[in-house]
Amino acid sequence: MRIAIVDESASRAAVIREGLATLEDCEIFVVTERRGLVASIGEIAPDIVLMDLGNPSRDVLEEYFAVSRVLGRPIAMFVDESDEESIAASVDAGVSSYVVDGLSAHRIRPILDLAVRRFNAFARLEADLAEAKGKLAERELVDKAKRILMDSRGFSEPQAYSELRKTAMNQGKRIADIAEAVVTAHQLMGGK
């Protein structure tokens, strides 16, 4: 496992490193420079990012939230103090674990595990949502193609679907692909 620790303070980074000492097969990278943070983390290609921000200003917090939106990796963020707005912003930014006043070596491993599990669970939910949206879009496309066939060829709904299915089978394509071709052709011919 590759772990990136982002912390401008070497002493705080050492606390996180200590908490990770029991992990086997683990490469730990410490990033202390805020400038070029996304590029630095991109070069490291970590499996998880642990950010210790101490007591950041609102601007610094927003900067790190922007970084977390881009990374696409589990992120555990440690801060000394927080408010509801910061917590909400961290959730919106995709931070997997937002820990207030909890930086101690013995808590690092459970927080790391939680961040990875929450990230994976959220990633599964996002994938499921994308799949459902894709299926809905395909279904709407098929329905639109059926309506076109019903209007232009006088088919009933079952006949229109049967025609789409038969054409898909004959061409070795998916019904949604054939439906898209029907809709595109209809639009090219001046249909709505």
From TrEMBL:
Residues 122-183 form the ANTAR domain. InterPro entries: ANTAR (IPR005561), CheY-like_superfamily (IPR011006), Sig_transdc_resp-reg_antiterm (IPR008327), Sig_transdc_resp-reg_receiver (IPR001789), WH-like_DNA-bd_sf (IPR036388). Pfam families: ANTAR. Residues 2-116 form the Response regulatory domain. The keyword Isomerase does not apply. GO terms for molecular function: RNA binding. The modification 4-aspartylphosphate is found at D52. This is Response regulator receiver/ANTAR domain-containing protein. It comes from the Bacteria. It comes from Novosphingobium subterraneum.
